Amino acid sequence: MDFKYAKRMAHLKASEIREILKVTERPEVISFAGGLPAPELFPVEEIKVVSRIVLEEDSARALQYTTTEGYTPLRKWIANRMNARLGTAFASENVLLTHGSQQALDLSGKVFLDEGDVVLCESPTYLAAISAFRAYGCNFIEVPTDNDGMIPGELERILESAKRVKLIYVIPEFQNPTGRTWSLERRERLVKAAMKHQVMVVEDNPYGELRFEGAALPSVKSFDQIGCVLCLGTFSKTFCPGYRIGWVAGDKNVIEKYVLVKQGADLQCNTVAQMEIAKYLELYEIDDHINKIREVYRRRRDLTVQTMEEEFPAGVTFTRPQGGLFAWVELPANVNARDVLEKSLEKNVAFVPGGSFFPNGSKENTFRINFSNMPEDRIVKGLKCLADVLREFV
Amino acid sequence: MDFKYAKRMAHLKASEIREILKVTERPEVISFAGGLPAPELFPVEEIKVVSRIVLEEDSARALQYTTTEGYTPLRKWIANRMNARLGTAFASENVLLTHGSQQALDLSGKVFLDEGDVVLCESPTYLAAISAFRAYGCNFIEVPTDNDGMIPGELERILESAKRVKLIYVIPEFQNPTGRTWSLERRERLVKAAMKHQVMVVEDNPYGELRFEGAALPSVKSFDQIGCVLCLGTFSKTFCPGYRIGWVAGDKNVIEKYVLVKQGADLQCNTVAQMEIAKYLELYEIDDHINKIREVYRRRRDLTVQTMEEEFPAGVTFTRPQGGLFAWVELPANVNARDVLEKSLEKNVAFVPGGSFFPNGSKENTFRINFSNMPEDRIVKGLKCLADVLREFV
Q: What does the record note on quaternary structure (chains A, B) (predicted)?
C-alpha cells in the first residue's frame, strides 16, 4: 500500500542520538553519547518504600484515572520549590504535570505553532526540542550565542525584523548541548525584548538543580511582568527518568490551554508515578539526594575537563560547565565530527556529533560530551582514546 | 499579554466528560458519567509483588530511560496475545507502546493528518478521539451506523465521493459510546472498501477482552491484506488505567513513523510501568483476572439493562451491550439530554449527554450510561432516580 502520511513526516528524521545509543548498547562501548543520569544514584531503597506505601494506603486512587492537571500535592510542591529557588510566584493551578518535560515541549508546539511560524532558539540547541517543534511545521531562526547566552543585540535585531515569531526557546542553565549558563544581564534583556515584542519564552530548565559551583541565578521567569515566560522542569535528572514526570508552569490562562491539548494527547500522566514522587518528597529530603548527585557529577565534570585539557590536541576547544550533564567540544573548522565518530566507534568510544543541534544545519566541527553516566575510570579511558583519534584529524 | 495561540486552539474545548467528572467528585453523586473501571477489581496484591520484584531485580533499568519503542518482552506478549485472539500476525517489531491508547490516537493524527484532511467515523464515536484528531485540523464525516456497525453502502458512497479521506476510525467491539458490536460481514466489507480506496483504518479496541456472552469475532485487521489497518489496544480496562500503557500495532513501515513522532512527543513510556506489567503477565494468569472483571461487569450490565427496562418510561430506547462499559440511551427527538442532566444533577445523578459524541453536532436527545464503576445497589438507586427525572420530560 502507498501510505499517505501527513506533510510533516517529510521533515522528521530519527534522532541521531537515539540511533547512536542503539550502537552503544554493547557493554564494551564507552559512551559519552546519551544524556543518561547515573543509575547507581537512583534512590532505589526509598522508591521501594514509597511504592509500598502508596499501594498500601491508596491503591484505588493510584491505579485509577485521575485529572489531566495532575496530582495536586505534587503540583503544589513544584510551585513552592520553584518559588523558593527561581524567584517565581506560582500556585498549584499554574502547574501542569507532563509526561517528562519532552511532552511539555510538544504541547508548547501544539498550543502556539501554526505551519510557517517561527521559533527563535540558541545556536546550538536541544536536539529533541527541534523535533518536537518541527512537527508543527515551524521554521527556526538560530540566535547567535556566546558563553553568556543569546547575544542581546542579535536577538533584538531579529525580533525587529523577523515575521511570525511565536516562541523563543532557551535553556539558561547548563545548556544542552553546550553546558553554558546565561548571565543575569542576558536573562533580563531576553525578557525585556520578549515583553516588548509580545513573544512567548519557553524557559527549559532540566539541569538547574545540578549546579557544582558558583551562586544560583534568578530564572528568566523572575523578570517576567506580563506572563510571557513558561517554565519547564522535570524529575528526570534529580530523581529518575523512568517515571516520566515533568511539568510546565506559567500564566493560568495559558496553562488551561495546555491542559486542553494534553487531554487530547494522552488524558493524564501515570497516576502511580505522580503519587510515588509526592510521597518521596513528603518522607525524604530530596536536597540530600540532589547533593549526592551533584558531588558525583562534579567529580566527573572535573575529571572530564582535566582529561580533555591534558589529552586533547591543540586546536580543540571545549566548555567548562558549572553544572549539568554536558560539555561541548569544537574542532578546527575543517574537521567533521561525524568522521571522527566513525573512527572512534571503531575503538568503541561514542559521542554525539554537534551538527544535529543546529536546526538549520551547520558547525559539523562540533560534538557533545556527556559526563554524568559513567564511572571515573571509564571517563578517563574513553577520553584518552578519543584524544588519540582526534590527533589523527587535528 | 495578548496570547497568540495556534489556530487549532480555536476548535478545542474542554471534554464535557472531564468537566462533568469534576462535579461528580462529591461522594453523594451517583455517576454514570465516567468510563472508569471498578477500582475494587485492580489486582493490588499482585501489583505489590511485581513492583517489589522489578525494583529488587532490575532497578537500574526500571528507573532509567529506555527505547522509544518500549520494553521488548511486553511488546512480544502483546503481539502474541493479539495473534491468538484477533487473527493477526504481528511480531514485537509491529508493536509500539504508547502512553495509553489515547496517545496512539494522537500519534495517528500526527502521522497522517494535514489540515483539511478528512476522518470518517461512526456516528456517534468516542469523544476523546474527536479531540485528538481535531487538533490536527481535520474534518469529520460521520458514517451512518446501525446495530451492526457502519452501514456499508453509506461508507462506500462516501469513499467514492469524499475528497482527502485519510483515516477511517472505528471501535468494532462494545463501542464507546453505544456499546454496539460490529457484525463479521461489516468488518470484512469495511476492509474491502478501505483496501479499494487505499485509506488507513484505525481499529480501536479497548474493551474487546470484556465480552460477557456470545462468541468473539475476528478483528477488522484480520481481513487486511495490504497493511491498511492499525490496531490500538490498552491495559487500562483489563489491568488498570493509572499505568497509562497502551499500544498501536500495524505494518512495520507505518510503526516506524509512529516511533519517530513519539520520540518528539515524549521520548518513551514510563519504564517502571512497562516492566511491572510484563512481570505481572509472566507471573500471573491475566485471563483469570479478566474473567473476574467480566463476571462483575456482566452482573452490572444485567442490572443496568433490567432496571432501565423496568423503570424508564415508554419512548426511551437503549442498547443492550454484549460487553464493555457503556450503554446508550435515546430519548424522543424533542427532548434534550442536557436539560435532563441539569435536573438529574439536582438529584445527584450524573451521566454524559450524547451530543458531544457527534463530531459535527446532532442528536441532543441521547446520552451515555457507564455501568462498570459502581456497586449494584447504587446502579439501581441511580437509574430509578434517573427514571423519575425522565418521566418529567417524556
A: Homodimer.
